[in-house]
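Notes on consecutive records. When two proteins share a document, each keeps its own sequence and its own C-alpha cell line. Never mix them. Below: protein one.
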Amino acid sequence: MKKMTSAEVRKMFLDFFESKGHAIEPSASLVPVNDPTLLWINSGVATLKKYFDGSVVPDNPRITNAQKSLRTNDIENVGKTARHHTMFEMLGNFSIGDYFRDEAITWGFELLTSPEWFDFPVEKLYMTYYPDDKDTYNKWISLGVAAEHLIPIEDNFWEIGAGPSGPDTEIFFDRGEDFDPEKIGLRLLAEDIENDRYVEVWNIVLSQFNADPSIPRSEYPELPHKNIDTGMGLERMVSIIQNAPTNFETDLFLPIIREVERISGKTYEVHNSLNNMSFKVIADHVRALTFAIGDGALPGNEGRGYVLRRLLRRAVMHGKKLGIQEAFLYNLVQIVGEIMQSYYPEVLENAEFIAKQIRREEDSFHRTIDAGSKMLDELLEKLKATGADTVDGRDIFTLYDTYGFPFELTEELAEDEGFKVDHEGFKVAMTERQELSRSFVVKGGSMGVQSELLTSIKVSSEFDYTRTNLDGKLEAIVVGEEDKAMLSTGMAQLIFDKTPFYAEMGGQVADYGVIQTLEGTLIANVIDVQKAPNGQPLHTVEIVGELKKGEIYHLAVDEVRRNKVMKNHTATHLLHAALHNVLGKHATQAGSLNETDFLRFDFTHFEQVSQEELAKIEEEVNEKIWQAIPVVTTETDIDTAKKMGAMALFGEKYGKLVRVVQIGDYSVELCGGTHMKNTSEIGLFKIVKEEGIGSGTRRILAVTSKEAYAAYRDSENALRKIAQSVKAPRLEEVEGKVVALQEQLRLLQKENEQLATKLANQQAGSVFQNVKEVNGTSIIASQVTVKDMNQLRTLQDQWKQKELSDVLVLATANDGKVSLLVAMSAKAQEKGLRAGDLIKHIASFVGGGGGGRADMAQAGGKNPAGIPEALSEAEKWIETK
C-alpha cells in the first residue's frame, strides 16, 4: 500500500477515472443551487441529481468528482469518534445510463488493489452486498475475492422516496485485531456494530430501479437507463493510507491541531480523550465554517446560518476547555486554506473575508457568553428565592440554544450552587429543535422519475438570440410518454429544429407567444418553455389547431413581454456591479428572477442594507442607464471569458462555449440570457424593497421603465396626501411641517406624563391611608386609576420608600385589560410571604396569570370585573398564612 498525501489521494482517484473516459466535474458550492430539497450539499451525487433523474442529459455520461459535503445530523458525535465529521470530501464515479455493475466493480477493485494505483492488499478487503443481488456476489468472486470476504446485508439497498434506487455493495478495509480488542471479528460487519477495525472505504450504488413507495420493492420497474453512483470518503481513505489511528491524525487535520496546540499551550494526545475531543471539534468545525462561509453562507438564527452559528459556538466553548479565552478560530482560516490549496484555491483567495466573518461572530459570541452567564446567575437566584432545587430542562436548553452554553457547563455551575438539573426536559427540548432543523432540510422528494421518451429525443434544436419570430420545423409532439405524429387539441410539449423562444434559465423567465401556419393561422399558444433533458427548448403549448410532425410553422414571441424581461435582466447586471461597489465584493449573487414587471436579486451580505447605501446603489444604477452604455454580447470559450474579467456565478455549470455580457468597463458577466442593446433602453430603475430572506442572504426587489415611473408617481401622490394633512402648501415644506408636529406631540406627551404622575401621586395619598391589619400583617389592597403597569410600579416605589405597610396589592384597568402588582416588605418576606405566590393566587380572578420575585410580582388579565374579588382574596390569602 502506497504512502501518499491527501492531495495525492484525491488526484489519483480522479486521474484513474479520467483514464477510464470520465469527465471531472468540479466541486460545487456547499450551498445548493436551484435545489430547495437540500439545506447543504451532503454527498457527491447531490449536485448530479439532474442527470440521474433524466431532467438533463450530460455531455459525457461518465463523470467523476471530489465533492465537498456537509452533514449536520451527527454534530454531537464529532470529536467523540474516530471518523465523524461535519464537512468532508466525497470522491465518486458516476455512470448516467452508460456502464453498469461489471465495469463499476471491476474498476473499483482495480483502483484499490493494482500496484499502479493504491495497491491495497486484497486480503485486507471485505465487501458487503444485498442478499438478493447474486450478480454482485458473482462479480466479486470472478475478480478473485474469497467467498468468506463477502457478507450479505439486508440494508444494502439505496432508495430515498420515489425515483432511482437499487442495491449497493460496500468495501471495507480490515485494520487488524489491534482495533478489535474483544476479538469479535466479522460479526462487527454482519451485525453493523460500531467499530474501528473495519473501516468503510467505498460504497457502490447500482441504481437500476424506479422506486415506488406504493408497491413492494420486488415489483419496482427497471430504469430505462441504469446508473452508477459511488462514494469514497477522502478522510477515511487518507487515514488508512497514512496509517493514522483516526481521521484526525492525517495531513487534513494535524496542521490545524498543531496551531491549536500553540495557541492553547496544551498538547494533543491521541489516546487522551479528555483533551483530544476539543482539538478534534475545533479542527473539524473550523474547516466546515471556512468552506461554508467561503461559499456564501453566514452565521445566523435559522437554517444554514443556525448550523454555522452552532458550529462556531461549539468550537469556541471547546477552545475555552483548552484555556483559550480570546477569539482564535479566525486565525485558523489561513491554515485550512493552505491544506486544501491544491484543489480549492478559492479558500486562500477569500481567506481575509472568511476570517473577518468568523472574527465578527466570535466577538459577538464572547459578548453573548457574558450575557448567558448573567442569565444563569439570575435563574439560580430565582430558584433560590422560590425554594426550588432543580434547574428546568427548557431553561438549560435556552442557555444552550441561545447562548451556546454546553449542557455540561450549566450542570457544573448549577451543582456548585447546590442545584440538580433536569436531564429529561433538556432532551425533550433538544429533540424538538432537531425536528425543527430537519424541517428545513427536505421540502420535496430526492429525485424525479426519469422520462424515457424525452431522454431519448436527441434531435438538434437551435435557439436564435437575434430573432423574435422565425419559421421552424416541428420535430417532436410529446404528450406524456407518447411521441405523436399529429395532434389537434389539448396540451403538448413541442420541439422545433430552431426557435426564437427563450427557455427559462439563469433567473430569466420563459418567453410566451404563438405558433402559426405560414399563412398566419393560429395553431397553438406557447405558455412555457423549459430545457429538455438533451438541452432542446421544450415548448409547452395549448393547441387550438392541427399540428403535424415534420411541418414548418411560424414561431412568434410576445415581443412586449420579452422587451420588459430584457430591461429587468440588463438592470440586474447593473445592480450586481453596484452592490459590489457600495457593499463590497462579498455581495455576490445568490439567486435572481427577471420577470415582466419586476426583478428580484438575492445576494450574500451580513447585515441590513442601510437607506443611505440603497440610495447610493439606486443612484449608481441610474447613472449607468443615463450614460447610454452599449451592451455587447460575445460568445467565446470559458478561459477567454475569464481573461476578459467575466464574473462566473459559483455553482453554475458552463459549457465549452459561453456568452459574455459586457456593459462598458462597468460590468462583465457570464450570462445566457437576453439583453437590451444599450442601457438607455432601460429608462429608469427604482428599488422598492430590501429584506433579509435567510442567514447572510438579502433580497432586493426593483422595477424598471414604466413600473419604475409608476413607483415614483405613487410615492409622490402619497407625499401630496401627507402635505394636505399637515397643511403644507408646497411639497418641500412637508418635512418641516412633520418635524414641527413631532415636536408638538413630544411636548404634549411630556405634559400628559406629568399630569398622569400628578394624578398618581394624588391617588397615592388616599390609597396609602387605607391600611388594614390581617393576621398581624399590614396590607394595602386597592384599585387605582392609572394608565399602565409603569405607573403601578411608580406607586410601589413610593410605598417602599415610606414603608407604609407589609404588603401592597394594586390593580388598574384600561381598555378591558387588567394590570396587577404585588409587593412584599422585608418583614413580610421573613414571615415566608412571597409576592410571586400571592400574584399567582389572585391573577385567576381577573382572567390572567403572572409571576415574579419574592419582593415584587406582577400579572395581567382580561376581566376587569374580577378586580374587587381579587383584592378581597389577597386579604383572605394572608389570613391563611
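Protein two starts on the next line and is unrelated to protein one.
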Amino acid sequence: MPRLFFYPVALLPLLSTLLCSCASPWQSTISTGTSLQVDRGKVLLVSPDTTFSCGFYPSGNSTNAFYFSIWFTHATDKTVVWTANPCSPVNGQGSRISLNREGNLVLTDVNDSTAWESKTGWGKHTTVALLDTGNLVINDSTGKTVWQSFDLPTNTLLPTQHLTRANKLVSQSDSYHVLYFDNDNVLRLLYNGPDITSIYWPSPDYNALQNGRTRFNSSKIAVLDREGKFLSSDGFKMIASDSGLGIQRRITIDYDGNFRMYSLNASSGNWSITGQGVQQMCYVHGLCGKNGICEYSPAGRPRCTCPPGYKMVDPENWDRGCKPTFSIQCGQPQEDFQFVKVPHGDFYGFDLTSNKSISLGECRRICLESCMCISFTYKAGEGLCYTKNVLYNGQVYPYFLGDNYFKLPKSVSSTSPAANHPGITCSPERSKVMVVSADAYIKNSDHISWAYLYIFAAILGAVELFFIMTGWYVLFKMHNIPKSMEEGYKMITSQFRRFTYRELVEATGKFKEELGKGGNGVVYRGILGDKKVVAVKKLTDVRKGEEEFWAEVTLIGRINHMNLVRMYGFCSEGQHRLLVYEFVENESLDRYLFDGRGTERLLSWGQRFKIALGTARGLAYLHHECLEWIVHCDVKPENILLTREFEAKIADFGLSKLSERDSSSLNFTQMRGTTGYMAPEWVMNLPIDAKVDVYSFGVVLLEIVTGSRVSSGVTVDEDEMGLMQIPSGATEGGEGVGFMQFVQAVKQMLANGAELDIVDARLKGHFNHKQATVMVKIAISCLDERSKRPTMDQIARNLMECDDEDYHPAYF
C-alpha cells in the first residue's frame, strides 16, 4: 500500500468551483449539496481553532493520487491522523468529495465510481463539521451526530478518542501491524502478515497477570487524555514525558510496528516521541521478514540483516525477508554440512523440536539427522535445544543467553550475502547492513591464527566505523530524517547500558545528594547527560568477579514491569560496582506509613489498595514470569517506592542470588533480609524458596492496613517472631502483645465476622470494608507455615477480584 507523504503543492490557494454552492477553504461546517473537486482545491474544512484540516491529501508515491484525509494544519509534515480511503486513492483530475442531498458524504473517482462513502442518509438538512478535537462528524437536522471519524480510526488515536472492542489501529505502510483488544480483554499488538500471524506485545510468553495486565475488566476501552496519559481498561498506562495540558499529541502505530505517543512543538511544528509501547524494537514481529534477523548497530539502532548463506529477496523491501542461496536435499550425507554460529541469535516460535539438558554436540546431531531442520538455538547454561524448520522473527540481542546455529552445505560460503544488498533496514539507517565474516561465526575451528583474527577484527571494526559515520551523515544530514524519529531511536537504545565510573561521579556531583542507605549500599541522586534524573546505587561488599557481576546485572537489566524499578545500567570498574535506576519521585512506602502520625502524608485507602495490588503484581512477575526465577529476599516498605501517582515500584530486586526457574530451593550461605520481615525458615535453617517473599509481603500488607510498624524484632522462638504494638482497639486495652498472638487474635476476629478495628484510625473509617477484609485474610494466610502460604500470582488475582472500579478512570 502506498505511504502518505505531504507535498508543498497540497496547500495551493483555493479557487474552487462548487456544484451547488461555494465552500470557503477556511470554514468548519458544510451543508448538503456542497462539493469539492480535487483539481479545484484541496482543503474542504478547517477546525475552528485551525488545528486540523480536512480534504484531499496527496499520495507519497504519486502526485496524481489523493486520499480524503484529516491532518494537523500546523505540523511541518502536515501529519495525517485519519484517512477515509487508505487502500483506494483517487485520481488527481476530476475526483470529488460531496455531501449529497440524502446526507451521505461520498468520495467519487474521476470515472464517477464510489471510492468511499459514510453510508448515512439523514436528508437535506444534514451538515458535516470538523471539530477542534480532529473529529469529523455528520449531524442530522436536530444536531445529533450520526457518524464520526473517531469511530473509524486508521493508524492514529487523538486525545479523547476511544479505542474500543469495535475498532483498532493499523499501520498504514503495510497494514500488517495492528493495535487492538483481544478476546481476553487485553490490549495487544499483532503482526498479521501474509504468511504468519503472531502477537508480540505484551510478551506472548507470559499471561496477562505476569505482564502487569488484568483480564477481568471487559469494557475494552483505551483513551489518550489531554494531559498526555494513555490509559487502558486492562491496566496498561503510558504517560508522556512532557505530560501536561496545552500540547497537541497523538498516538500512532508506525510503519515499524511499534505504537508511539508524539507531542507537537508549537513553535517549530516538529514532533517528538514522548512514549512508546515496545521498548526493544527487535521484539516486533515481522520487522525483517522471513529468515531476516533484527539486530542493534553499534550506535544502538535496530537494523535488518540476512543470515550467513542467505540474501535479500527484494533489496528495497525487508518485508519480503531473505532467501537461501542453497538447497538442502533429504538424504544428503551429514558430512556435507557445516554449522555457522550467530552469537546471541534466536528466532521466536516455530520450533521443530525442543530438548532440555543436552549438550551442544547432541543438539547439533539432532539437527543433522533431520532434513527439515535448517537451524537450531542452543542455551548452554540450561542445555536447552530448539531446532527450527521455519525462521521468523529473528533477532540478535546481546543479553540473550544463547546462540543460533545455521545448517549450511560446506559448498556454500558462510559469509552473509546481506553485505551485497544494502537495502532497507528497520530504522532510519535503512541502507546499512552489517558485514560479518564467516570466521567470526564458526565456533569449532581449531586452527585459527589468533594474530590474524585480531588483525581482522581491527580492520573490520575500522571499516564498520567508517560506514556508520558515513551512513549517519548521508541519512540524517542529506536526507533530512525527521528529528522525532532520531530521538525515538535514541530512546529505544538508552534502556540499558554500561556507564563509566567517571560518568556517574559527574552525574551525582561526586556523590553529593544521598537518597537513602541500606544493607546493599548507598543511593545517590544523579542527572545524566540527557537530563534524565536517576538513582545511583553504590554497592558495598561485592565480591563477585567482573564477568559474573556483568552477567547478573545484565539479566536484571532485561527485567521490565510497571511495578518494578527499572534499571538503566551499571558500572563495573576495578572495585567500583554501581547500579543506575530510574528515579521514583515519592520516596518509599515507610515514609508515608510510619514517619510521624500526622495527616500531611496520610495515604488514602484507595492509594493503599493500589500500592498493595501493585506490589503483589511486581512480586508475582519476579516469581512466575521473570526471565529467571528471582526471589527478592528483602520485601519491606523501605523497598517499595511510590511514583507521582502513588503506583508501587519494588526496588532492590535481583540483588539476592539468582536461581534457575526449575530449582526447588535456594542455597544461601548467610541470612538475607530485614529483621521483622524474615520468614521463620531463615532462622530455622530450612531451604529457602519464593515463599519467604510471600511471608514478608504478609507483614507489609498488615502494615499497609494498620498504618503501624507491626514487626520490630525476630528470634528463633516462633511464638516471638517479631514484636509489635497493636493499634488501639485491636485488643482490649490496646496493649502490646506477641506478634503471633496478634495474628491469632485477627484470625478469631475474621472467623467471628467482627469489625476490623485494626484499620488505621487516621482514616476515620473511610475505607472499603470488603477490600480491607480480603487484605487482612491474605496477610494472615501469608504468615502461615510455608506449605500453606499462597503464591504471589494467587495473591495478585485475589486482590484484583476485589479491585474497586472507583479507582479506575471514569471512562472505563
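For the record: The CA atoms of residues 408 and 621 lie 40 Å apart.
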